[in-house]
Design goal:
Blueprint lengths: L2 E5 L6 H14 L3 E4 L6 H10 L5 E4 L2 E2 L5 H15 L3 E6 L3 H7 L7 H21 L5 E2 L4 E2 L18 E4 L3 H10 L2 E3 L7 H18 L8 E4 L4 E3 L2 H18 L7 H5 L3 H12 L12 H7 L2 E3 L3 H9 L5 E5 L7 H12 L1
Parallel strand pairs: 1-2, 1-13, 2-3, 3-5, 4-5, 5-8, 8-9, 9-10, 10-13, 11-12
Antiparallel strand pairs: 6-7
Helix pairs in contact: 1-2, 2-3, 3-5, 5-6, 6-7, 12-13
Length: 340
Amino acid sequence: MYRVYATIDQRTPPAAAAKLARRTEAIGYDGLFVADGIHDGLLVAAMALAATSRLRVATGVLVAFPRSPMTVAHAAWDLQALSGGRFELGLGSQVRGNIVGRYGTPWTAPVPRMREYVQALRAIFACFQHGGPLRFEGEHVRLTRLQPFFNPGPIEHPTIPIVLGAVGPKMTALVGEVGDALLTHPTNSHPRYVAEVTRPRLTVGVARAGRESGDVQLMVTPLIATGASEVQLRAEREKQRRLLGFLYSTPAYWPSLELFGWRECGERLRQLTREGRWDEMIALVSDEMLDTFVPTGSHADIADILRERYSDLTPVLTFPLPEDPALDTAVAQVVEQLHA
């Protein structure tokens, strides 16, 4: 039995999020991941939570470092109160080029910075709920002031799950130390990678912090190609082929390529981006790569395919919300099968 979270396109604007969230809840999904980057993830999450009554909503993932922990804490606290405890705060570090060039934020070592970021959030949440002075002083985060006037005060569901996106060994181990859940990146969600690489790294952090393995959840986000017809399946496969070409041009996402002996493909994709030859990237993603990284099957078959792939590796899988509402009934049956 899996809990199933929907994913929606990262270009989904806040104005459309409410309608999509209502569809997600009606289909029977347990949760919804909303993206951050093109639109503000916290704003999209607010729209989704306000439009639903049962659905959990998580940022998947919020780019942390350009934002102050205090501003994120205030937003998360409000979203948790608004939703009656249905919000999950997903955080990620992003790559150096984006942090410096796109956000204009200084770059420092991401693992110690993220450790302090999470610890600071928990310190702020404790002050919100219980009062008292705020004092968190680290190398990257220093918080020493929270006057009662600016404290929003206690809420009914003060425990906000913190979900961390991670790929590398140190960040993955950090999730085991301080996180409530690890959200895999789609490029590193193959079951072999999860079993041989992700889970052992996560265990290192869990042991280092003296925690239990059940304290940290694993949430796996595979890219999936599915549809009601062969035409739809082919179209979805080509959509995922193009996406993989873009994603695997980033060296941080090469671990799965290296596991399967395809690092050279990542290097060639990287070179094409440097030369601005974006349209040529799709040709480098072979059918073998697509078959390996993208579970593919009709609506009638895809639940069995996913169960066979992931077995007992994870309690949470993501499954894409269909673009066409006419497919909602078929997808509801897939979700029900994954719940079974």
